[in-house]
Amino acid sequence: MKKKLFYLVVFVTLAGSFLTGCTEQELKEATDAVESVAKEALDQAENLSDSQDSHVLAVKNGHPQDYPDKSYGDAFDAFFSYPTWKYFKGTKEGPDEDGDGKPDYKEEEADIVEFTGHCTYLDSEVKALIQFTLSKENDTFEATYLSFNDVPQNMLMLYGILEAAFSDGESSETAADTKTEFDMEENQDESSDADYETIPMETLAGSYSREIGPKCSLSIWSADQGGIFFAMGIGSSGYMAYVDLRDCTAEWTDENTAVYRESYGNRNYTLTFTFLGDGIISLSESEPYDESFPLAGNYITDEIAEGNCEFVFPEDDVFPIDASDLNGKTPAECKIARNEIYARHGRMFQDEQLQGYFDTCSWYRGTTAPENFSDTVLNEIEKANLQTIAEYEATIQ
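The chain above was modelled as a monomer; its predicted structure follows.
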């Protein structure tokens, strides 16, 4: 209690020093700055009491499978400045499998460990907040949430910053005095030297989008002689994602090809990356990873991708769709195709998973609630295409 009172006194004293000779805007900026310092100080004070909590220690002393010799506590202390930890009871929400726009279940009183720390993202200092949910059944935990300056980030970003923390962290002796730089586009393993002349591996790390939808995002965090470390997703992150491949490694089979393998039960799945150059990657599957959403296709870097990469049918507002265009599409792909016609006009969706998918599309601007949307904004081609897709869906259900 004394520490909290001390920081409150500091805040009042410092704030008072700005009350003379300042404009209203200057006063507001100064007050905000002091409040930020005071809040940071309170966070650090609370960190002293929570740092030895058994739930916090379970996460701090744990480690990812790929880094058995480095704990979360050591990695985060080295990577972030002003690290703090705390434990609390929270609510964990399940997926929306039935598509009613609501989580199928909620786990009340879930054990949550929350970490905060500062890093540099895209040349700006941000306060990162990472939450871990602890399992009560088998004493495990998983990272489930990330925000930068209170703005929620997707799961690809979460896995990216975790990889950056474990692979690129500075020594813990200097972490408190420095800002660690984190850039999703540039995060690579610089300790490895490429042997391959055909592919400059330092150019592979980055973000890619599938050329023909539904929109699928590919993030390659790093590439070295051992392979490429990547994540893939369709739709928003976490339980809302249609497909969510995390922390995966594809091993090189030749100088232009890497293969990711996954075996469970009687299934042996492979995802093959063929690097074609000029920021283009061709992906092929031994079988669909997800029956609803295949991942195969050509992927191009976000720097050269156009908005058309984020549509199932890029021109369904100006050209009719026929049966040949729909041949082979799954019901889930048809659902995306049908609703992207509405999404072009700013319609929002009660289906949380569907809304999460369109929120990942750069062209989408959700402005109209479902109950306020009118089909009168659709042109005749769009209305005809809606009917064509619906009729095809009826034949494959």
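The chain has a mean pLDDT of 77.
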